[in-house]
Amino acid sequence: MGTTSTMNRTAGKAAWHNWAGTVTARPQRIVAPASVDELSAALRKAAEDGLTAKAVGTGHSFTAAAATGGVLIRPDRLSAIRAIDREAGTVTVEAGVPLKQLNAALAAEGLSLTNMGDIMEQTVAGATSTGTHGTGRESGSISAQITALELVLADGSVLACSSDENPDVFAAARVGIGALGVVSTITFAVEPVFLLTAREEPMSFDRVTAEFDALTAENEHFEFYWFPHTDGCNTKRNNRSQGPAAPVPAVRGWIDDELLSNGVFQAACSFGRAVPSAIPGIAQVSSRALSARTYTDIPYKVFTHPRRVRFVEMEYAVPREAAVGVLRELKAMVEASDFRISFPVEVRVAPADDITLSTASGRDSAYIAVHMYRGTRYQEYFTAVEKIMTAHGGRPHWGKIHTRDAEYFAGVYPRFAEFTALRDRLDPGRLFANDYLRRVLGE
Question: Helix 265-274 vs helix 279-289: angle between axes, to the nearest 10 degrees?
Fold first, then answer.
């Protein structure tokens, strides 16, 4: 679901927009530091001038997590891959490195991340700060693969963090939502590159929910999409393979991933926006458009896909054991409503992790993501979905649309007070504050 943010000059002040067009910010100034020293100086200057400061990535977040009217920090020049340590099994990169660049560089060295999400346009710092994830029985989010990071604090000092060094900050800053400081470098665990065999197969909603526990237990990476207004799902199982590699043939890949998943789907969404009554019929066709296929390739070529159709998204993590019940409630709600939903619902899983505000913190989780085509009304649908998710103690993705506040988060995150106390210590003057953080973390 690929992304870029945009900037243009408006009324003499640069305007920043996120990829989905849901957020606009007009900072007092924009800086693009080329070193950690320059980043530290930019933060000290912002504090001296009485301005807030926020780092942005590629703008993939649908929330205003990175918006500021103060100093906007672009990571474009912090884009070096600093070190690859084969013996330690790590790679150290600067904050502005896009995941696409990281994946290609690792593959060239015969290495890979263990797990990743389905897009790779984001910067490493933006992706990890909001808890970006893929799907995995035992392997967690991108943040869970961090072994060390450096955080530039409000006073310009640089704090090295790992499980051995400042472990309390490390526990929180791997998913820091930009509240604790500006991440300058990240060290990820990597492993020798391996092959994954992907098996994509249509399956009915009743079957996939009945077999959900078995499908998640039997496969290293399981996910599926349900098409609202239908009983159709597309499932995907990724498992390690001894090979040989058997990539998707170029023509088949273009038809499935570009023509159908992007080109035809874009046209269908546009038509559905103009004629909502046509959406259930379009959904029936969409749910049958992609046939079964199996292919084997290196990880990032299996995990990730081009996503060019723009949308808005809400995603909640619910306890793994609640997933099937939540999905059935969601389907019943859509069928009983007048909503016309052109985008499929995406379902993934993750194991529990030990990151303070990770959506999988302390519990095995299932992720349920709902989307609407950009430019269509999404508020009523998302409100109805959110009511179901919050009734099950759901935790919203930090970078996707939701209406929850600090009071709610204190109830669903056992370590929430630990995070806010750390924020008070590291940023007492709220250099990194904005409206979004005031809502989700409190004053």
Answer: 170
Burial level of 138, CB count in 10 A (0-12/13-18/19+)? exposed
Query: How many Å apart are CA 212 and CA 135, to the nearest integer?
Result: 14
User: Which of 139, 187, 185 has its CA nearest to residue 163?
Assistant: 187
Fill in the amino acid letter for 271: F
Q: Which two tokens stand for residue 266?
A: 């874009």
What global pTM score does this model have? 0.92
Asked if 155 contacts 44 with a C-beta cutoff of 8 angstroms, the reply is yes
Q: Averaged in consecutive runs of 10 residues, what is the pLDDT profile of the chain (443 residues)?
A: 41 76 93 98 98 94 94 96 96 97 97 95 96 97 98 98 98 98 98 97 97 98 96 96 87 58 69 78 70 92 84 96 98 96 95 98 98 91 98 97 98 98 98 98 93
Q: Which residue, 436, 410, 320, 413, is CA-closest to 358? A: 413
Alpha-carbon Rg for the chain in angstroms: 21
Give me the residue label for tokens 């996503």: 307
Q: How many CA atoms lie within 13 A of 350 on its CB side?
A: 30
Pairing verdict, β 81-85 and 111-112: unpaired
Whether 123 and 4 have beta carbons less than 8 Å apart is answered as no
Q: Residue 151: helix, strand or coil by DSSP?
A: strand
Q: What is the DSSP string of 216-276?
A: HHH-SEEEEEE-TTSSEEEEEEEEEE----BPPPHHHHIIIIIIIIIIIHHHHHHHHHH-G
From residue 308, alpha-carbon distances to 80, 254, 261, 289, 340 in Å are 27, 13, 9, 18, 21
